[in-house]
Structures are given as structure tokens and as C-alpha cells.
Amino acid sequence: MYTENDEEDWSMTEKLYDLDAYAREFTAKVISCEECGEGRYKVVLDRTLFFPEEGGQTPDKGTLGGCPVVDVQIKDGIIEHRLECNNEPLTPSPMGQIDWKHRYNNMQQHTGEHIFSGLVHAKFGYDNVGFHLSDSIVTMDYNGEITPEEIALIELEANRVITKQIPVNASYPGKETLDSLEYRSKKELSGPIRIVEIPGVDTCACCAPHLHNTGEVGLLKVLDVSAHKGGVRISILCGFRALADYGLTRDELRKVSHLTSAPLFETGEAVSKLKNELENTKFALGKAKRDYMESLIDSTMEKGEQPIIFTEGMDSDVIREGVNKMTALCQGFCGIFAGDEMEGYSFIVGSRDADCSELAGRMRTHFKAKCGGKKEMIQGHIDAEMHEIKRFFS
Ligand SMILES: [Zn+2]
User: Regarding beta strands 25-27 and 40-45, do their DSSP bridges make them parallel or antiparallel, or are they unpaired?
Assistant: First the structure.
């Protein structure tokens, strides 16, 4: 363990990502480094490029002194990095590298969110009261209802804002400027307030790294909308993540298109047709099974054979109906066994005058059958040969 604090006046971590959202590497001094179990260390630096988990956004990834940074948290202005070090000591002035692809993707999503929320606020006066940005999803919760048609218009307008390549400005205005400024904010803020402004579109208090220009968002696509606490939850994707999502969606659609032999944009209709056909086939098959079962029972009854029938590929409801029919026609035990000697038989046995639950006990003892039920009817599974079962019942 290594601890050093040679800067007397150090009280909080300097946020290098505030100074330059596009910087990828930095060096810093270790303020403290503590082992926290499982080969992990908690490291505080005098300054960092790692954006912590804050304001609904998951933290930056990357390496510090060559060790993977697995989590970054902030408390009272002090940013703490969690490292997987494998017990190798960290140098007093390590070099840090953020995962730039991950960070840039997050910046695309977050600036996209500001554009969308700014437009929603200007048009409806609603606020984004719950923002969540992780590696896989971006959701915004607005405290008012917006129709799908209105959302489509906001989406189109957001993409117009993107094509206009408007500069995105981040600053810490003085108190006077701040007091005269109208800006969106999720909570009552204290301390220096960072304002992210997209002129003509949005002004918002925000601590996260942003793009220099709306054009870098590239694309904003609404994925889903759902009702949420009297308002709406909207999920979006921007930039390269939107492109990746478009690729995956297209791949899946192509698979369905090949499987259904339908053109890409007629796959919904093709699947609906297949589903109908499947339902009709299931219905016809069910009827055929019932008819077959009826004929099996009729011929068994006509020949005056033991009412223990063996069959294959029968559904439990058809078997149950068959057993009910037989118990109405004859005395003693009536049963239907469906399956084969390899996989065993699923069965139902019923009777109107004999005790089936007593029979279940004997079957469990004799065959180690798994079965149970009531006096009138039992069901279960048995691993035995057909002739053994027949002998047992005769
Ligand atoms: Zn923000």
C-alpha cells in the first residue's frame, strides 16, 4: 500500500475532462492507493481524465499505470478509480489512458440527449427527469405525455440540428451571468455550475464531457417509447452506436427475409401469414390425434381387450379425454401410455370403481414410476417395457 500527500492544499480531484473533452492520455500524482480485496485497488489522483459515474452516465473505462480501470466514482469532489492490478505496485506518477472509443460514443449519446431534451423542453416545457446512459442503452424520462407523431417530429428536428453543425459550449459562468440565465437542471445545484449550451437549441447544467459540435452526433434515432410515471420514457441511440444498431437490425431482418422468402420490408406480413398457417396446422393435427385416439379406443373396446392402450406423440389433453371416455365405458383401471421404451411412457390411468391412488403407490414400488393424483385418476411417467406394464395391469 502506498499513500502520499505532498500537496498541502489538495482538496479535490482536478477534472481534466472539463478542460479538454478530447484528451485521451494524462499523467497524475497518486494521492492515495488502497487495496480493497480481490486484487483491486482504490486510487485517488490529484487530477484525472476519467469521467466518474455521475448524472446518469456510466464511468469512463481505460487503464491507469497499465492496469484496467473497472470503476470510477466521485464523492465530495474526490474521484476514486478502482483498478485491477494483480498486486503490482502503482508508480507515484502513473500514466492514464481512457478508452477513447467508449468515451467518444458516450459523448455522442450525451450531446444527442441534450439536443433532444432541449427541443422537448422548448416545444412542451417538459423536463428530462431521469437520464440513463450505459454501454447498451440511452433513456430519457420526460414528465409529460408526448405522442408518437410528436416524437417523430422531434427526432427529425434533432437530426436537422445535427446537420447544422452548431458549436457546443461548456463553461462555468459567474454568479451574475448564471442568475440571468435560463437553463435546464435536474436538481438544485450548489458550488460552481457548469453550463453546456447549444445556441438556439438547449442550455443545461451538466457535468459530463460533450462534443465540440452537434455535427459529430452524426445521427439520432428513437428506438422505443413507453409510458412512464405519467410521462414517457424514450430510448435513443446516436452516432456510431446507432450505426451498429442499424447494422444488427438489418442483419436480423435479412435472416427473416431469407427464412420467409419475402422481401425485406414485407417480412412482418410473411411472418403473420406463417403464424396463421401454423395455428391452422396445429388445430388440424389436434383433431387428427383425437380421431386416431377415438378409433384406438373403439377397436380396443370392440375386441374386448384390456383397456390399457399404448401410443406415441399424444398430447396430455387428448390422453385425458381418452381415459375419461374409457372409464365411462368399462370397469377397473383404464389407462393410456404415450411414448416408447427408449424414452419411457407418460401416462394417465383412471377408474370409476377402483382406487387409482392405491395403484400409484404400487406402481411407484414396482416400477419406480414417478406418479400421483387422486382416487379417480393418476398421471405420471414410467420407465418400463410395454409387456411388463401390460402384465402388471392384467
Ligand atoms: Zn447532460
Answer: unpaired
- For the chain, what percentages of helix, strand and coil (3-state, to nearest 5) are there? 40, 30, 35
Q: Which residues have their alpha-adjacent CB atom under 5 A from ion ligand 1?
A: 206
* pLDDT tens per residue across span 263-315: 999 999 999 999 999 999 999 999 999 999 999 999 999 988 889 999 998 99
Strands 128-133 and 202-205: unpaired
Which residues does residue 196 pair with via DSSP β-bridges, in sequence order?
Answer: 170, 204
Q: Closest Cα partner for 241 from 133, 132, 327?
A: 133
Strand ordering across the sheet containing 78-84: 2-3, 30-35, 40-45, 78-84, 67-75, 62-64, 95-98, 25-27
> Average model confidence (pLDDT) for the chain?
93
In whole angstroms, what separates CA 286 from the centre of its chain?
A: 36
Q: How far is the CA of 66 from the centre of ligand 1 (A)?
A: 30
**What separation in Å is there between the alpha carbon of 175 and the centre of ligand 1?**
20
Centre of ligand 1 to C-alpha 213, Å, is 15
Residue 207 Cα to ligand 1 middle (Å): 7
| DSSP reduced 3-state for 95 | strand
> Which pLDDT does position 191 carry in this prediction?
78
CB 158 within 8 A of CB 198: no
Query: In the chain, what percentage of residues exceed pLDDT 90?
Result: 86
C-alpha cell at 302: 370392440
Helix (H) or strand (E) holding 82: strand 78-84
Ligand 1 center from residue 49 Cα (angstroms): 17
Kindly give the distance from the C-alpha atom of residue 266 to the centroid of ligand 1, in angstroms, as a whole number.
40
Q: How far is the CA of 303 from the centre of ligand 1 (A)?
A: 82
Rounded to 5 degrees, φ, ψ at 20 are -150, 105
Ligand 1 centroid from CA 176, angstroms = 22
CA of 354 to the centre of ligand 1 (A): 75
The answer to whether 39 touches 45, Cβ cutoff 8 Å, is no
